[in-house]
Amino acid sequence: MPIRPFRWLPHNHKRHAVDADLVPRDETRTLCGEELVIPTTPCTKDQWCWPTCTECDARWRTAEGILPFPRRSTPTPHPRRPVPTTAKAHAR
Ligand SMILES: [Zn+2]
């Protein structure tokens, strides 16, 4: 079952998550429940620097089945890749 994709959208001084398939002028709701209209102009760099909405972040993670925090309670441990130990700085 495919997961509905989301994307970040700066709104009201926070970066909220909205459905990815929305187009400008669509009326929608952020994942945290704020109503907004998709802006027609691209977001500014400043807007992308706004803090992430924690509520949206949490709901996004829930929707995608990601644990809220990187806990060490995963049933199967990650296989460790061998680390190259002899990294000689040959300038070739
Ligand atoms: Zn939000």
What are the key terms here?
elongated, 20% strand, two-stranded antiparallel sheet, 92 residues, alpha+beta, binds zinc ion, two-stranded antiparallel ribbon
Structure description:
The protein has 92 residues and is of the alpha+beta class. Helices cover 16% and strands 20% of the residues. It has 2 helices and 4 strands; from the N terminus they run ββββαα. It has a two-stranded antiparallel ribbon with strand order 1-2. Strand 3 (27-29) and strand 4 form a beta hairpin. The longest helix is centred in the middle third of the chain and has 11 residues, at 54-64. The relative contact order is 0.18. The structure holds zinc ion (ZN). Zinc ion is lined by residues 16, 30-32, 34, 53, 55-56. It comes from Saccharothrix carnea.
Question: Can you summarize this structure?
Answer:
The protein has 92 residues and is of the alpha+beta class.
